[in-house]
Description:
Elements: H1 8-26, H2 36-43, H3 47-53, H4 57-69, H5 79-92, H6 96-116, H7 119-131, H8 137-164, E1 167-169, H9 175-194, H10 199-217, E2 218-220
Antiparallel strand pairs: 1-2
Amino acid sequence: MPRTQRTEEQTRRLVADAVVEHVARHGIDAVPDVPMERILQDAGVSRASAYRIWSGRSAFRAFALEQCAAGHAMQTLDPARARELAEEALAAENDRLHSAAHFVTTAAAEELALMLRSDRWRAFVAFQAVALHTSSPEIAETLARIDRQDVGRLSAFYSGVADAWSLDLLGGTTVEDVASAALLVARSTVARAVAGTDVARARTTYLTALGALVRGSFRARPGADADLGRLLVGPAGVQQGGDAQ
């Protein structure tokens, strides 16, 4: 039987999946680097096919690390589900500020469960842990770009929560401050859980911190009402999904 010829895109996809699976399970070297031969074997891709796409180990390494970094922008909480949680939070709490905090924490809890089951997210956490200690300017710029993207997405999310629940920021606080704090606590929590730290305790600490962040950063606007039609629906903890650029 003649051998099926893969397209370059199909080969790239196979290798990308193998990279993510390998790093999620085995971590990443401190360089950081990934074992090219092992990954090609897992992907069922020959060296000859690989070298027709990547000019050498450096090009392959760059591609592999891009796949790990891209996990930060994985799709998480479904928008329809987020809308349901918002409606439940509004019905459960009479106080708008507490209702908003209720929504953020319940949405973040579901998002956290999705992330911890995701190889893409585990691969990103492994990449980030090593990349933070590398002297490579390219990797440092990748991490800085990821932070900018995630803070931007979270800023939009918390602005949407404030609009939907008619909340105002407390004096001196910006939505970027809230987003940066949420990002920090979320990444710390997920990293601890992925590393095998007590997941239940990490989860409780995370959700408590997010609730306190909302209650300590906003106040209910006098004479206003909540309007979920103004909510920018998306996950509450780390990012709103989409592809990393």
